[in-house]
Amino acid sequence: MVVFDIGAVPFNPDGWGPPESSSSTSLLPNHPTNVPFAPFSRSDKLGRVADWTRTNTYNQTRTQTRNPSDSVFDFTGDDSFGGGADDDSSFRLVDGKPPPRPRFGPRWRFQQHRNQLPQRRDEEVEAKKREADKERARRDRLYHLNRPGGHGQRREAAVYKSSVEIQPEWNMLDQIPFSTFTKLSFSVPDPEDLLLCGSLEFYDRSFDRITPKNARPLERFKNRNFFKVTTTDDPIIRRLANEDKATVFATDSILSTLMCAPRSVYSWDIVIQRVGNKLFFDKRDGSQLDLLSVHETSQEPLPESKDDINSAYSLSVEAAYINQNFSQQVLIRDGQKVNFEESNPFANEGEEVASVAYRYRRWKLSDDMYLVARCEVQSVAEVNNQRSFLTQNALNEFDSKYSGVDWRQKLETQRGAVLATELKNNANKLAKWTAQALLASADMMKLGYVSRVHPRDHFNHVILAVVGYKPRDFAAQINLNTSNMWGIVKSIVDLCMKLNEGKYVLVKDPSKPQVRIYEVPVDAFENDYVEEPLPEDEQVQPPAEENAEDGEANTATNDVEDKEITIEA
């Protein structure tokens, strides 16, 4: 039996391999002289420690194209171990690993990251997060560049001003967040009519058949006067207060503002006067309650400059002008009217006034507390010898780029989509109209769709469609809860009843969803200046070249009186 002598293996305390001071032949007698010792470090990339397969014809081709540094020891053509390649020709290495899959496609796909160092798992996650942040920033940048207005800020970054300037001598008594309003609920019995004043004309049903293809121009009614009288200036309410008909007095516009307060974004204010055991809710002269907000709840901010025809203030004046003229145009003007117990309490004798009826109604809030409000309806309709009261309001389209829906193309085929867009952009305004119709017990509320003749012409408009809704059904559609509406009013009335006699103001915070109540001097707001609509020379005129390009002539006149809204108090 042949014995294999391995010899003596010395111990090297200074490193790997044999000691340098000793001779390799004396320490390792059987060590091949032509095989050098190949040291390596831990950072070197090793393919194989020794390649024993290069004598194979199949593997020889692969080895010749492979990097020579993949193996540490190269025994090609070496006969030091005896036997040669012929003796090992029948030897096969059993390897359980599958052969490497061939790579197809362009080689650059696999070489583009060859020079990068391998990353740890956490580094890969961080790298993916950075790439995602860059992509998100790129999308936001493109969004701001492509939308109307250029580099404007988002709605949540918009800054609004308070509707009334808070004076330093005012004493803040309480602040109520809107989150508490949404939890309130109160049920009131059916109201009773105390008095009906004014006269109404009949509604023209031909407007129900209007489509964008046969639109009608919006007419101007500069000879008819419209009145926006506050509570304490109403002679009928003064008379009812002297007769002790109620404890709380207000108007439908003020009550609807309180009822729909959680949906409001813009700032508003209501003056509250405590006189003895009675409570009066008033509006200031020149208050925003006389105007109509446009795109209040939209995500797209409007221009801040008052000189811009698409600014919030200019659109509010335009919307009020459209609503007043629309409410009179959809009537049958043949002289036939329905007159009530008393004439219009705010008009002089012989003065031509708009078609409107005032219903003074009373609600019971508790055993010893009643509320009287002046409610308005604009027309009457007769069906099967039965008369029905109607309210008439108009939605206005100023530029389809802001809303994203073109009424002239979508009203006939996708009217639901148009209404859904308006409910998103004008949720507060539509809720207030619905609340006013419910307070007046109107049988039908008519909504008109009025658009500009040209996006840059804010003087001339056309009526594209008129749609009727039952107030209760429409309230359910827009998720307007009547119990919650009265719960808000009841909570504010109870809060104000605990205050001392004097004057207070309830202000909606311009930047937070809450209201604040301040105690103000008795003579506050008495000398306020009534702000008029913008003069015509300060408003932007539609460019002539744009109208010519679109094939639409600019028919705006230079009569300033035709453009202004007559609001008398």
How would you sum up this structure, described in words?
- The protein has 569 residues and is α/β, with parallel strands linked by helices.
- The chain has one domain.
- 26% of the residues lie in helices and 22% in strands.
- It has 17 helices and 19 strands.
- The protein has helices at 24-27, 57-64, 84-87, 108-111, 121-146, 178-181, 235-242, 252-259, 312-329, 400-403, 407-410, 415-425, 427-439, 471-477, 482-497, 544-550, 560-563, and strands at 48-51, 71-74, 171-177, 192-202, 216-217, 226-227, 248-251, 269-275, 278-282, 337-339, 356-366, 369-377, 379-383, 386-397, 444-454, 457-469, 502-508, 514-520, 567-568.
- It has a 15-stranded mixed beta sheet that branches.
- β1, α2 and β2 form a beta-alpha-beta unit.
- α8 packs across α13, α8 (252-259) crosses α15 and α13 packs antiparallel against α14.
- The longest helix is centred in the N-terminal third of the chain and has 26 residues, at 121-146.
- The protein starts with 23 loop residues before the first helix and ends with a strand.
- The model is unreliable at 23-27, 56-66, 68-73, 75-85, 104-119, 148-157 and 529-569 (pLDDT under 50).
Largest sheet: 15 strands, mixed
Number of strands: 19
Helix content: 25-40%
Specify Rg, calculated over alpha carbons.
Answer: 42 Å
Unreliable spans are 23-27, 56-66, 68-73, 75-85, 104-119, 148-157, 529-569
Number of domains: 1
What is the structural class? Answer: alpha/beta
Indicate the mean pLDDT.
78
Query: What is the 3D form?
Result: elongated
Number of helices: 17
The percentage of residues in β strands lies in: 15-25%
What distance lies between the first and last C-alpha atoms, to the nearest angstrom?
A: 129 Å
